[in-house]
Structure formats: C-alpha cells, structure tokens
Design brief:
Shape: globular
Helix content: 10-25%
Radius of gyration: 28 Å
Distance between the termini: 41 Å
Strand order of the largest sheet: 5-4-8-2-1-15-19-17
Structural class: alpha+beta
Number of helices: 14
Largest sheet: 8 strands, mixed
Number of strands: 40
Bound molecules: zinc ion
Strand content: 25-35%
C-alpha cells in the first residue's frame, strides 16, 4: 500500500499528516542511557526449533501448507456485481491432522455490520468504503468439501469449515468449492474499487475470492479479522482465473494471459509481439482505438500465475494499453504493461508508467532477487497505490515524481510481501518498511537520480522517536491510524538505512539482506528469522539495535561534553569527551575542524557504549581547533542536535537570535488554517490549526526550515509576516 510522505504537498496537508510529532508532550525526563539494558543477552525469545533455525534460516523440518485456486468470475457492469466460484486445492503439509479449516472472506469488511466498519471513527478513515451505502459483503451460495455440502460458519471476515473426517497430516489434500457473489464498493479500503472515467468505469478487483488462512508453526491458524488497516497473510500456490466481462472491456491481471488470440485483434497481437522485444514503450491500444471496440455480449479472459500468494485484476472499456520488455539478470524476459484511461495519458503522467515499471523491476531483480512473474502491470484506478503479485493499482491522477514514487513502491512490494511472504496483518513493517528501504535505493538509481533527494536522517530523530507514537513492533490495528505512515513505512525503512550506512556498511548489509530474501523466498519468516539472519550473516551483534529501534522507541542522543587542550596548549593535542545520553546507542563519528581549514575524523564503534556512558579520546594534533561536531553527515537520528557541536568562541555559525521575537499567530485569508509559532526551551515550533507542532531550525537571515517536509519559512524584517515555501508553492502569512 502507498503512504504519501510530505515532500511536495501543500503546507496544511503536511501539518495534518505529520501530526505525530508534538511539542505539547508533557515534558518528561527521558530515561538515561543504561548500557546493561541496551546490550544485555537473552534477547531472543526462543532458540532454534526444527522448523526455524537459530541461524535465521528455515529449520530442517520447515513445512508450509499450500493453496491452489481455480477461479471463475463474471462482472455485471450494471449492478457492479461479481459472481463466481473458487475451487481450492489445499495441501496440509503440517505434522498436524486438521479437524477444521479457516478461510478469509475479506469482502465482508464492506458488510454494514462488519467489525471493520465498527472501528471507523467519526473523523473518518482511509479504510472501509468511505460511507458508501450499498449491500456489501459476500453472498455465499454454496460450500462443498470433496464434492459434498459441508458445515460452515461465517464470523465477520472469516469462514470456518468443520470436517467430518480429519484432513491428514503431511500431505493430506482437501478440495473446497465456494460459490459466491458480491457487489463491489466504489472505494474499497483504498485497495480495490471502481473509478468512473469519460470512456467507462475502471474496475480494480482484489480481495475478491475466498482465500485460505495460513496455518503455520507459529500461531497455528492465523485468523485475525480484516479490519481495514492491517493487510494480508496468505499461502502460496498456483492460480488460474477465467474472467468474464463485457466484450468491449480489456482485462489485465496477475500472471500470464493464456488466450491472447481470442481477446485481442490480430493488429493488437502484433503490437504485443513488438512490445515483448522492445526496450522502448510500444502502444498496444491507443486513445483513438478506444472508440473502435463497440462489441456487445461478453468475453472470457484466461490467466495463470504460479507460486503466488494472491491474484488481482482490472477491467475496463476505457483502457489505453502500452508495454515494453523487462530484462532480467538470468537472461529471462518479462513484460511491463500499463493500463490507464485517456485522462491519465501523456509524458508527464502515465505515458511514462511502463518506463517506471520496467526500471523498477529491473533494479530490484538485479539488486536483490530475480522477478519471477511473466508480466508486471501498472493499472490506473482510484487507489492511492496497492500491490498484488504481478499487478499493482496506482492512482489515475498521479504524475511525474508521484507516479514514479508510487509505481516503484507498489512494485517493490513484489519482493515484500509477494516473494518474502511475511505476516502483514501482524508485522506491517516487514513489508512496508523493507519496501520503503529498497525504494530509496531504487529512486537513487532511476534515471541518474531524476527524482532522488537525499534524506537528512539527523533532523528526523525527534519526529521518529516521539513519545506519542507506538513502537514499530505493533500491528497496524493496534496503533493510531495517523501513525501507520511513520511506524510501518518510514521508521523501519530508515532503520534499515541506518543499519546499512552507519552500522554494518553497504557490503555486509546487502549480503545479509539478500540472504534473508533467498532463505525466505515464498516462505513465511517472522521478525526473529530476520534478526537472526542479519546477525548470523554479518557476524555482528545487533540486539541493541532491534531492541531500541523496533521493539522499543528508544531515543538516540549523543553529545559532546568537553574539548580540552592537553595542559592548556593546543600544540599538545586535545582530549574530547563524548556522552551517550539517549537509551539507544549508535556508532559515533566525530569531525574536528582546525583553524587552518583542515579537518580530521574519528570513528568510535558502538562497543564503546557497551560499558560506558561517556568516553574520552585523545586527538594527536598540534593545531588550534575551531569546531568539533558529531555525525557531520547527518546520518544518525539524534533527538537533540544542540549538544552535538562544540565550537571555539569565534566560530558561531549564524548570528544569535531570540526565538521569542518570532512567536505569534499568523494567518492568510485564502488558507483555512492558522499557523502558530511558539517557543520552548529556546526552540521555535510551528503549529497549524488542529495539528501538532514542528521544530524549526534557524538558518540565518530570518530564515527557518523544517527539512523533513522541505518547508522554509522566511520572515519579513519587522517579523510581522512570513512566507512559507514548499515544493514551488509560496504562501504569505501575516501576524494577527
Ligand atoms: Zn506499501
């Protein structure tokens, strides 16, 4: 799923989505650094088992059940109704006999009395159907087991099937068939739905057929209901789907189209052949072709996908289609496809979707693990962005940098959770966070960094470790909805970035991360399998990092305590004392600047903090020091940058200001929010109406910034107004 972070959104929206950080928190003394708490052993809740090795790899007796599906579905465009059947072949590879089975009925989220609807607050939610009144949820016509009717019970989004005879352990096979129908919501929890366009509706269909719950060695049956925020945990298998739609529709779906000759014209098939061999995007169906197909009746499109955990599809008479070849490291080919309405066409928008898709899949394949599906399709719908195996739905209005970002993110999900099948319902950070991390490298690589902006990690510390947010290791249904963006995406993503750049180094990190992907491809890892693998492959102790960043919300705060010349003379060198104040230790980098303009760098490994709260080291220099600075490249999320620099008296970087001179309430008649500037402990904060506050950094010349959102505030000389600038928008606010 996509979560838009505030890079180039209007300032009011930025304040809204970034509400996590609060200057209004009751000031409480942060717990002091305790090196025993940070590093103590017995971090792992269990040692190795037969199914999960202590080394982080699947154990010698690892097992996993599988589910193959034969799906038939037809779309009634007048009623927005889908009617079909699912034939499931379920294989029980576990060592346990099963006396009942659990299935997921995710469409029941849209039934009026669903638990998911019950937890939507008055202020609204991204989840559910945005208040649409309709007969949502499944109508189940029949359920059979091995061809015979069977007892079943539906509870919210789950169905339990009771078996007259146990399903045998270690290879027992069950055949389940469910006949069902449902009316599609127009807005389906931002993951499916119906978008109206000038040439017809676009149906983006997902969570549409009954799917097996996962039975595993960790929880047994995983039956947490679908409440909206938490995503999916699914078994692997092979899926075929026959999709019957109006004849003038074009269907794109997970996997490979099996009957291209039946559904495309000769000319269109020739264009497909050309696209399969072209690195440049080839038009399959142009805007001017849309009017040509006026056929009535229905057509059936047949698809197949192997080793998949899900299947999604989209259908519309309005699709423009284009495609290009994807080159994979092994020499195999796949194909990048885009399906979008005429409204979204053009080089600034979806005209580049196939280029983005191809680049994204090629990058991830080369860097981490080769893409396994025969096609990768980007569909324009009404979703902010949602991922499925081999197909993703992105918003039809996305363009430029946004469209690159969402396309790259949704296809990044093909690695997490499509290849590495972790439990998204419990551990959103293992797919969204890992994906956010790989997106950063992919964006840096794309088209010589066309859309890349390096993040300043140092300025994010206070925001990411605020006392107001939950720890990462909490399910999305167990955290405030407004914190999901931070806790499932940004903080774990940045955590892996810190681990790569500042703790392990890229070479060690990449080797360990690649090993994790290879070990758990098409399997079900837990957080502990990930942690064990990273430590075993890199050879480094990382329990302090998992403990502080993922399990707790410990803060990083390192400080320079003193800088003293030996015997008072700089010719003798200097003694520098650094302190670790926050609960989460980190490796420490210290930069020294000398008055003659030269610099020196000292690196302290994290082991310094294993038995010390402060550490003094000697600098063997003979020159006068002008500045000593921690983390000069801004790579550590330190919550308090004020104690990171020591400077000789003359080296003050900007003129001194009194932040109290800038406080007040500022407004602009055209904008529905006011911005209030307040001062606390010498720090200036900005806060928009109804939202929480951001810290501002002073840059000199009456200019302040909040770099995370790339906001700049420039005051007039009399301090009675300021201009707030972000992403090319510049708005003037005046003091009331
Ligand atoms: Zn996502």
């Amino acid at each position: 799923m996509n979560f838009k972070f505030p890079t180039k959104i209007f300032v009011a929206a930025v304040f809204a989505v970034s509400a996590q950080f609060s200057a209004q928190e009751t000031p409480k003394e942060s717990p002091k650094y305790d090196f025993v708490e940070a590093f103590k052993p017995f971090f792992y809740p269990q040692t190795g088992t037969e199914t999960r090795s202590a080394s982080g790899q699947p154990g010698h007796a690892y097992w996993q059940n599988s589910a193959d599906y034969k799906l038939d579905i037809s779309l009634d465009e007048k009623k927005n109704e889908l009617t079909g059947s699912a034939e499931i072949t379920y294989t029980n590879n576990s060592p346990d006999q099963l006396s009942f089975l659990w299935l997921q009925l995710d469409q029941n989220l849209f039934a009026k009395d669903s638990r998911g609807n019950s937890v939507v607050p008055l202020s609204g939610s991204r989840n559910g159907a945005k208040g649409e009144v309709f007969e949502g949820g499944y109508k189940i016509k029949s359920v059979t087991y091995d061809g015979k009717p069977v007892k079943y019970t539906v509870t919210d989004t789950r169905m339990q099937i009771d078996l007259a005879q146990h399903l045998a352990a270690k290879g027992g096979k069950a055949k389940i068939k469910v006949e069902y129908s449902f009316v599609s919501p127009k807005y389906g929890s931002d993951r499916m739905g119906i978008e109206e366009t000038k040439n017809g509706n676009i149906y983006t269909i997902a969570q549409w057929y009954p799917r097996m719950c996962v039975y595993d060695d960790v929880m047994g049956w995983n039956t947490l209901p679908y409440l909206g925020a938490s995503e999916f945990y699914l078994e692997y298998g092979d899926i075929t789907a026959n999709i019957t739609v109006p004849s003038n529709h074009y269907v794109v779906a997970s996997g490979e189209l099996l009957n291209s000759k039946d559904v495309y014209s000769k000319e269109e098939n020739d264009r497909w052949d050309k696209a399969r061999n072209s690195d440049k995007t080839v038009m399959i169906r142009t805007e001017s072709d849309i009017k040509k197909n006026q056929a009535s009746g229905t057509k059936t499109w047949k698809f197949k996908i192997s080793q998949t955990r899900d299947f999604a599809w989209a259908s519309s008479a309005a699709f423009v289609l284009d495609a290009a070849k994807i080159n994979l490291p092994s020499g195999k080919k796949s194909i990048a496809i885009s399906a979008y309405p005429a409204e979204s066409a053009g080089d600034k928008a979806w005209g580049r979707s196939t280029e983005y898709t191809k680049a994204s899949i090629e990058h991830y394949s080369k860097k981490w693990y080769e893409y396994t599906y025969p096609a990768a399709t980007n569909v324009a719908g009404n979703e902010g962005g949602m991922e499925y195996p081999g197909i993703v739905f992105c918003h039809m209005d996305s363009k430029g940098e946004d469209l690159w970002g969402v396309t790259d993110h949704e296809f990044g999900h093909n690695w997490f959770p499509m290849i590495v099948g972790s439990n998204e319902r419990l551990f959103a950070w293992m797919d969204e966070g890992f994906n956010t991390f790989i997106n950063e490298l992919s964006t840096e690589a794309f088209n010589k960094g066309e859309y890349y902006q390096k993040k300043n990690i140092a300025q994010m510390g206070a925001f990411l470790t605020s006392d107001n947010i939950e720890p990462i290791m909490v399910g999305p249904d167990n955290m405030k909805e407004r914190n999901i963006g931070t806790l499932a995406y940004y903080k774990p993503g940045m955590g892996l970035g810190i681990l790569r750049e500042s703790v392990l180094g890229p070479e060690k990190f990449d080797k360990a991360f690649r090993t994790y992907i290879e070990r758990w491809a098409f399997k079900h890892p837990t957080p502990w399998d990930f942690f064990h693998t990273m430590e075993n492959v890199s050879g480094e102790e990382l329990n302090w990092f998992w403990r502080g960043w993922f399990i707790n919300k410990w803060k990083v705060d390192q400080a320079i305590k003193t800088v003293k010349y030996v015997n008072g003379d700089f010719k003798n060198g200097a003694q520098v004392t650094v302190e670790n104040l926050g609960q989460l230790p980190m490796p420490t980098t210290v930069q020294l600047k000398f008055k003659d303009g030269t610099t020196d760098m000292v690196k302290l490994p994290v082991e310094v903090w294993k038995r010390n709260n402060e550490w003094t080291f000697k600098v063997n220099s003979t020159k006068e020091i002008s500045e000593v600075k921690l983390d000069p490249n801004g790579e550590i999320p330190d919550v308090n940058s004020k104690n990171n620099t020591w400077s000789s008296a003359q080296a003050a970087p900007v003129e001194k200001i009194n932040p109290k001179d800038f406080v007040g309430t500022f407004s602009n008649k055209q904008v529905p929010v006011k911005i209030v500037l307040t001062e606390k402990d010498g720090q200036l904060f900005a806060q928009a109406t109804g939202q929480q506050a951001f810290p501002l950094e002073y840059l000199g010349d009456n200019k302040f910034s909040f770099e995370m959102a790339q906001i700049e505030i420039v005051f007039s000389k009399d301090k009675k107004s300021f201009n707030i600038a972000q992403g090319g928008t510049d708005v003037k606010f005046t003091k009331e």
